[in-house]
Amino acid sequence: MLTELSIENELKSLISEIAEVELNKVNCDASLTKDLGVDSMRALELLAALEKKYKIEIAEEDLPKLDKLGTVVELVKKYLAEKS
Amino acid sequence: MPDKNSFMLEAKDIEKILPHRYPFLLIDKILSIENSASAKDGSSSGGKKIVALKNVTMNEAQFLGHFPGNPIMPGVLIVEAMAQAAAVLFLEAIDSNLRSQYTFVLGAIKDFRFLSPVYPGDQLIIEIEVLKLIKQSGIVKGSALVSGKKAAEGQLFFGTIKKDE
Fold this sequence. Notes:
The complex is a heterodimer of chains A (about 80) and B (about 160).
Chain A (H helix, E strand, L loop, with lengths): L3 H16 L20 H15 L14 H15 L1
Chain B lengths: L10 H7 L11 E6 L14 E7 L19 H19 L2 H4 L2 E13 L8 E11 L4 E9 L2 E14 L3
Antiparallel strand pairs in B: 1-2, 2-4, 3-6, 4-5, 5-6
């Protein structure tokens, strides 16, 4: 079972990779769209990467929730809990 | 691979789906479309596939300059042909009313590799598979083959822009 911290660290590096920003810029307060330059194409890439990595299927209406590291962690945890 | 003699859509059908025209319509035939996994709202996490055919001929404008005496199909045009095949897949699946309101445009090109040159006389078989499709955007992976050998492969991201009224 993945701990909360390990999910957070995994997601942090995933977001840093997709947004092409340094790892330390991905913190809990940074908005992906406003601060890290994530546009609709990168958001879609993040969505697809999350689905592939965690073998989950994220509903389209949850897409706006992918805006901060914290909400991404919450969302992934929610889907993982539904899966198990 | 589908039989090249049997096809689903020919050029005149493709013109009803794609807005592209000469000299930039880079798909000649659609050999097969699999739309099995489509959800009611058109969203999908894969399963949709299309196979398209493009005959490359010396009579095409790009070979005037790319390159004189040494014609090679530009890689970007292979990408464009693959993007058009993907656009057929997206547009065919949506309502024709919506189709007239939006244009599918390329948003990103990822992990593309050009593995062998394509020459006039070659027949490109383009295979596209949807990785993720939501209402207004999507990701596909695809490859272009000549005689069964991969000439190019990679991922394409699409978005939509609303046409001016």
